[in-house]
Amino acid sequence: MKAAVVNEFNKSLEIKEVEKPTLERGEILVKIEACGVCHTDLHAAHGDWPVKPKLPLIPGHEGVGVVVEVASDVSSVKIGDRVGIPWLYSACGDCEYCLSGQETLCPNQLNGGYSVDGGYAEYCKAPADYVARIPKEADPVEIAPILCAGVTTYKALKISGAKPGEWVAIYGIGGLGHIALQYAKAMGLNVVAVDISDDKSNLALELGADIAINGLKEDPVEAIKEKVGGVHAAVSVAVSKKAFEQAYQSVRRGGTLVVVGLPNDELPIPIFDTVLNAVTVKGSIVGTRKDMQEAIDFAVRGKVRAMIETTELDNINEVFKRMEEGKINGRVVLKI
Ligand SMILES: NC(=O)c1ccc[n+]([C@@H]2O[C@H](COP(=O)([O-])OP(=O)(O)OC[C@H]3O[C@@H](n4cnc5c(N)ncnc54)[C@H](O)[C@@H]3O)[C@@H](O)[C@H]2O)c1
Ligand SMILES: [Zn+2]
Ligand SMILES: [Zn+2]
User: Fold this and answer.
1) What residue stretches are annotated with the Enoyl reductase (ER) domain (predicted)?
2) Which of 59, 69, 183, 274 has the most crowded CB, counting CB atoms within 10 A?
């Protein structure tokens, strides 16, 4: 089968023929139709996180396709079903986190397109128990970004504590952020969108943000304090330390910063302000299978819609280059 392969960190991906995966117990084989390109895939290709991916690696954790083969012990998924293969590729099912419905914290989890091969390929195998079920009416290309960008931002907003009518700031209106702001609106929140270009500000306003700030033109912290008195919650999905610092400072007393973007960096937090203002800082990693069902449901009902640009697998290196430069509006989805 054809796949895009990371052979070495910081080198171009190689488009090549590789062995089609063979199934083990509990697994299914999916013929991939579409796979979204997440900034995490770029981190994987760069090897810039403390925990490195396997090499060689086929990236991709927003793969959607049709089941073409199932292992003999699989009954929950049938040939012909449409499924998605997410970042949470599998978990142990047995640890305290799995047992309490927090499988995204399972220490024994595997990650699609990182610790195991993912969706930048014609075929991808996955454990039947952890694939996302894609409803019949959903378009595979449109739904692909929900598999990571969607569920991740939906979950981050859920745990942000922001209630309908309150203000939330989204830092980084990229693949994740442009969907985050739509979930926020669908949840009844007011949204300030922050990025560092006019293109992203315009996109945010088109998608329903109440206020959009270009952080290169004005100081987002001052603007947010002045316009809304600080936000009840800020979600940072930017790949920039500065954005995290500003997101922290944008939060009003009693508010919450949800840390989602993954620059390999430190976030210095002032102890005094955090205590006196009772600010909460929490991390959020993708979403559970239940979060995934809910996030997909929003998309299928048309409450959120990824802005998509499609291209072919062969163009992945150009897509990565544009992503590094912050030049993608919305999400790129590879049609496979
Ligand atoms: N926690 C999780 O579960 C999770 C899940 C998926 C992705 N991620 C991470 O989230 C990050 C974003 O992923 P993506 O696919 O949306 O990336 P992306 O490249 O599509 O978007 C990043 C956006 O941040 C903007 N940005 C850069 N500097 C900024 C600044 N100073 N202020 C405001 N905005 C700024 C860019 O212009 C761009 O629009 C990555 O680090 C990715 O690995 C985390
Ligand atoms: Zn992702
Ligand atoms: Zn577990």
Assistant:
1) 8-334
2) 59
Mean pLDDT of the chain: 98
Mutation test residue for ligand 1: of 196, 239, 259, 262, the one with most atoms within 8 Å of CB: 239
Note if the pTM is more than 0.90: yes
15, 119: one domain: yes
Residues 43-71: tens digit of each pLDDT: 999 999 999 999 999 999 999 999 999 99
Please tell me whether residues 67 and 112 are part of one structural domain. Answer: yes
Cβ pair 29, 68 in contact under 8 A: yes
pLDDT in tens, 96-115: 999 999 999 999 999 999 99
- Ligand 1 and 88: CB distance under 6 A: no
Q: Is 155 in the pocket of ligand 1 (CB under 6 A)?
A: no
Residue 119: φ, ψ to 5°: -95, 5
Q: Is the ipTM reported for this complex over the cut 0.95?
A: yes
Same domain for 161 and 59, yes or no, is: no
Residues 182 and 303: beta-carbon distance below 8 Å: yes
Distance 87 CA to ligand 2 centre (A): 7
Same domain, 119 and 207: no
To test the pocket of ligand 1, the residue of 40, 201, 286 to mutate (highest count of ligand atoms within 8 Å of its CB) is 40
Task: Give the three-state DSSP class for 51.
Answer: coil
Nearest partner of 291 among 170, 180, 154, judged by Cα: 154
C-alpha 21/C-alpha 79 separation (Å) is 16
pLDDT at 164: 98
Q: pLDDT tier at 274 (50, 70, 90 boundaries)?
A: very high
